[in-house]
């Protein structure tokens, strides 16, 4: 169904299933870094694809972006974004040592991809169990660039389905009191056919 036609009840249902999925993902990240990760309430944005970068804090903001395709019984994309400073702090926590600057090499790229893979797998596993669907992530891709460039790949895929994007965004952060001042943005971007599958499975069938 067209994204514009979603009712408030359907939007709330999407928020709730994303909240459940992201709760599992946050637990997985907490176990990786040994510290508590806090979630904000998911929010749903329906926007023109050309304006997606603007919702990420500006097309020129430097980001580490990890993208994965949703495979199995549904299609879409997952996008995990870290501002440069947060990616640096996360790597220091994962690798157990301090670095003066964010340096992209085989070790750091592998570590960040593994974060994306673990979070996406936990998120999709929880959604799959809830919806009784098989949902698995593709191999993660990583980009370290301005936000506009990071989302280009995802936008190309989305444009095949139309000119609008539905983004279910959940912001998460580390515990500052424990010394992990990270912030991240987790996006679920289903294609229109997948949206119909989700809504039907949770008892809010497309109109």
Q: Can you describe what's shown?
A:
With 207 residues, the protein is α+β, with helices and mostly antiparallel strands. It has a single domain, classed as Chemotaxis protein chec (3-Layer(aba) Sandwich). The chain contains 7 helices and 8 strands. Strands 1, 2, 3, 4, 5, 6, 7 and 8 form an 8-stranded antiparallel β-sheet that branches. A hairpin with an 8-residue loop joins strand 7 (164-174) and strand 8. Helix 1 (8-33) packs across helix 4 (106-131). It is globular.
How big is the Rg?
Answer: 16 Å
Terminal CA distance reads 8 Å
For the residues shown, what is the average pLDDT? 81
Fraction of residues in helices? 40-55%
The CATH topology is Chemotaxis protein chec
SSE layout and pairings?
Layout (H helix, E strand, L loop, with lengths): L7 H26 L3 E3 L3 E6 L3 H4 L6 E11 L3 E8 H12 L10 H26 L3 E3 L3 E6 H4 L1 H8 L4 E11 L8 E8 L1 H10 L6
Antiparallel strand pairs: 1-7, 2-7, 3-4, 3-5, 3-6, 4-8, 7-8
């Amino acid at each position: 169904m067209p994204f514009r036609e979603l009712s408030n009840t359907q939007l709330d249902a999407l928020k709730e299933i994303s909240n459940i999925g992201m709760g599992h993902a946050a637990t997985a990240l907490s176990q990786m870094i040994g510290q508590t990760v806090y979630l904000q309430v998911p929010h749903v944005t329906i926007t023109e694809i050309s304006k997606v970068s603007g919702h990420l804090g500006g097309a020129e903001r430097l980001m580490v972006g990890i993208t994965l395709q949703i495979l199995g019984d549904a299609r879409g994309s997952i996008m995990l974004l870290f501002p440069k400073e947060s990616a640096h702090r996360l790597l220091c926590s994962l690798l157990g040592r301090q670095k003066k600057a964010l340096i992209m090499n085989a070790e750091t790229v592998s570590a960040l991809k593994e974060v994306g893979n673990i979070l996406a797998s936990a998120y999709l596993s929880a959604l799959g169990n809830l919806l009784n669907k098989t949902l698995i992530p593709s191999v993660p891709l990583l980009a370290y660039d301005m936000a506009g460039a990071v989302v280009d790949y995802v936008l190309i895929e989305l444009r095949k389905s139309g000119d609008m994007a539905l983004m279910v965004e959940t912001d998460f952060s580390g515990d500052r009191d424990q010394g992990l001042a990270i912030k991240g943005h987790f996006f679920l971007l289903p294609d229109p056919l997948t949206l119909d599958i989700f809504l039907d499975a949770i008892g809010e069938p497309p109109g």
